[in-house]
Design brief:
The structure holds two protein chains of two kinds. By secondary structure, chain A is α/β, with parallel strands linked by helices. By secondary structure, chain B is mostly helical. The termini of chain B are far apart. At the A-B interface, strand 2, helix 2 and helix 3 of A face helix 6 and helix 7 of B.
Chain lengths: 243, 423
């Protein structure tokens, strides 16, 4: 039973966007009845059939690590959170479609996670500009999920979807927009379910079936006003906002 | 003519304070959140602006700037506005936003908000009864009635915060109290945390796999017919689900443990950072200040009555500036610690309320610190309140708060090293 292989996927986002509800929906196929504030990290497991329907079908465990908190937390909280970012194989970035700030904070979240996960074979140092090309070389697959889709009035939907399209281009990631209290969005056969399945397949492929046997991974060290790891780097300016 | 000039000066300064409050709100408090309800920002800035204007009027009083009639007029105006805001506007909006957060009451938001406000008014009025703050010859809606009650709440708050601050400040900054935390301690705790997470993960894998097998077996079972097929299906699912609930209980216990370990690790990390900070120049400076203030606070605790009557306005000014700055910093820290995107509006409004009441009662208490000749304006404007009562009340609450903070911090300090010994 426990002899299946596993991959670790982080679920990141601001507090209150619905990560715990999302993880519960993905793993238990049920809606979470009493969402409460996540302290520390809560993990759940989903069983995924890689390449379902083909002769190479194999079952894997996908561990979804839901890390709580906000980007503006105290540095003691950030350093403790970093413990959970080790050996991550995929990241799901969650944002609230009704709250623009949560989408903007995703840049900082992704950097916080990718920054810690550095295996020192290749290091790219940037000076704070969000460059799409650098995200393209990112070895960790990303998925963008927007929650509370049902709370957006019909008139504003196209505007919100344009905004998230920009976001998914920046991250070079697929995007799914849903409502965590309605399992219909992820029902089998919907395009969302297909995207999700494709994402998990990509994560598993990167981890177990890459053509490169040695784990050469490029990681990114971005510098921030408050997190200067190397003395040679200068202070950087804040990322320009698209919104 | 001079009245016009004075009014223009006052108005300009009020606009400046309003702008400062607005910027503080946007840049500091709400920098991680999205401002969707601008009314919250406006209410906060207005409260801040009028509170600061009160202090400005005291300074003008002492300096003798502006003509005394226009000062009196602006005092009255300012007081009415701030009372209006603190008693009507802010509590109503707090009730409104709290009600908006509760899903059930969403439909009749306004109605419930009004109900909450009436409850608040009832308790607010009842507050005045046990305290000897008024002489009975005043009417119901006079300014003295309202100010006296606001004053009681504000003075209690001030005394609580000052008492706690007087004890906590030396405790935080003096290196004598900092527990010794090594990197090894933190690494050991992190390792325990990750081990616990691994255990949780392996148990959850078992649960998921068992569920999946049950589901698959259930599908096969649906095809099985006959008497024995039914019995087999019942017994196997029975044992499967009992097993599951047992593992689920273990998982719940482990998750609770992981949360505790996480919080302990955060605690150790913050202690380590405080130790590192204390080694820097800034840290050493605050350490020295900590010793200085602790002596001052001890002196104040024991010699509370002995407060000289002739303090110059420089000291009053310093008290004003440091108390505003200290309050804003404390409010910001508090806000970061407890707010989330749902509750941020409510919390900001509560902070605005506290800030307003704090400043109003500062004015009340400051009267004692001012030389006799300047007290007259405050007495005149605020009416015949029993000021002595407020001073005695402040002293009592200050003492109680300081002593209980000492007890609390002592217990917390003693308990912590024992917890780490057990690792």
């Amino acid at each position: 039973m426990a002899s299946l292989d596993r991959v670790k996927v982080l679920v990141l986002g601001d507090s209150g966007v619905g990560k715990s509800s999302l993880v519960h929906l993905l793993c238990q196929n049920q809606v979470l009845g009493n969402p409460s504030w996540t302290v520390g990290c809560s993990v759940d497991v989903r069983i995924h059939d890689y390449k379902e329907g083909t002769p190479e079908e194999k079952t894997f465990y996908i561990e979804l690590w839901d890390v709580g908190g906000s980007v503006g937390s105290a540095s003691s909280l950030k350093s403790t959170r970093a413990v959970f970012y080790n050996s991550v194989n995929g990241i799901i970035l969650v944002h609230d479609l009704t709250n623009k700030k949560s989408s903007q904070n995703l840049y900082r979240w992704s950097l916080e996670a990718l920054n810690r996960d550095s295996s020192p074979t290749g290091v790219i140092v940037s000076n704070g500009d969000y460059d799409r090309e650098q995200f393209a070389e990112n070895p960790v697959p990303l998925l963008l999920i927007g929650t509370k889709f049902d709370q957006i009035p019909e008139s504003k939907r196209s505007e919100v979807l344009t905004r998230t399209a920009f976001l998914s281009e920046d991250f070079i990631a697929e995007e799914i927009n849903l409502d965590c209290t309605n399992p219909r969005y992820l029902a089998a056969g919907t395009s969302n379910a297909v995207k999700l399945s494709r994402f998990f397949d990509k994560v598993i492929e990167k981890r177990y079936f890459t053509r490169d046997p040695s784990p050469v991974r490029l990681s990114f060290i971005y510098c921030f006003e408050d997190e200067i790891n190397f003395p040679k780097l200068n202070k950087c300016r804040k990322p320009s906002s698209l919104f | 003519m001079s009245f016009l000039v004075d009014s223009v000066i006052m108005f300009t300064s009020q606009v400046l304070f309003f702008g400062f409050g607005w910027l503080f709100f946007m840049r500091q408090l709400f920098k991680d959140y999205e401002v969707r309800q601008y009314v919250v920002q406006v209410v906060f800035s207005v409260t801040f602006a009028f509170s600061c204007t009160m202090f400005e009027l005291i300074i003008f009083e002492i300096l003798g700037a502006l003509s005394s009639s226009s000062r009196y007029f602006h005092w009255k105006l300012n007081l009415y506005v701030i009372l209006l805001v603190l008693i009507f506007v802010v509590p109503f909006y707090i009730g409104y936003f709290v009600v908006s957060n509760i899903r059930l009451l969403q439909r009749q938001r306004l109605l419930f908000a009004c109900m909450v406000w009436f409850t608040f008014m009832y308790f607010f009025w009842k507050l005045g009864d046990p305290f000897p703050i008024l002489s009975p010859k005043h009417g119901i809606l006079s300014i003295e009635q309202l100010i006296s009650r606001v004053g009681v709440i504000g003075v209690t708050l001030m005394a609580l915060l000052s008492g706690f601050g007087a004890v906590n400040c030396p405790y935080t900054y003096m290196s004598y109290f900092l527990r010794n935390v090594t990197d090894g301690d933190i690494l050991a705790l992190e390792r325990r945390l990750l081990q616990t997470m691994d255990m949780i993960v392996s148990k959850k894998k078992r649960i998921a796999m068992t569920r999946r097998q049950m589901y698959q077996r259930g599908e096969d079972q649906n095809k099985q017919t006959g008497f024995w097929g039914m019995i087999k299906s019942v017994t196997s699912t029975q044992s499967g689900s009992e097993n599951l609930s047992l593992i689920q209980q273990e998982v719940d216990a482990l998750e609770e443990l992981s949360r505790q370990l996480f919080l302990e690790t955060v605690d150790l990390q913050s202690t380590k950072e405080r130790i590192e900070y204390s080694k820097t120049f800034q840290g050493k400076y605050f350490n020295f200040l900590g010793y200085f203030f602790s002596i001052y606070c001890v002196w104040k605790i024991f010699m509370v009555k002995f407060w000289s009557q002739h303090i110059s306005f420089i000291l009053v000014g310093i008290i004003i500036v440091t108390s505003i700055r200290g309050l804003l910093i404390t409010l910001t820290k508090f806000f970061y610690a407890i707010s989330s995107s749902k509750s941020s509006n409510v919390i900001v409004l509560v902070l605005a309320q506290i800030m307003g009441m704090y400043f109003v009662s500062s004015v009340l208490l400051m009267r004692m610190s001012m030389p006799l000749e300047y007290r007259s304006i405050v007495t005149e404007v605020l009416g015949e309140l029993q000021f002595n009562f407020y001073h005695r009340w402040f002293d009592v609450i200050f003492l109680v708060s300081a002593l209980s903070s000492i007890l609390f911090l002592y217990l917390a300090h003693k308990q912590a090293p024992e917890k780490h010994m057990a690792l």
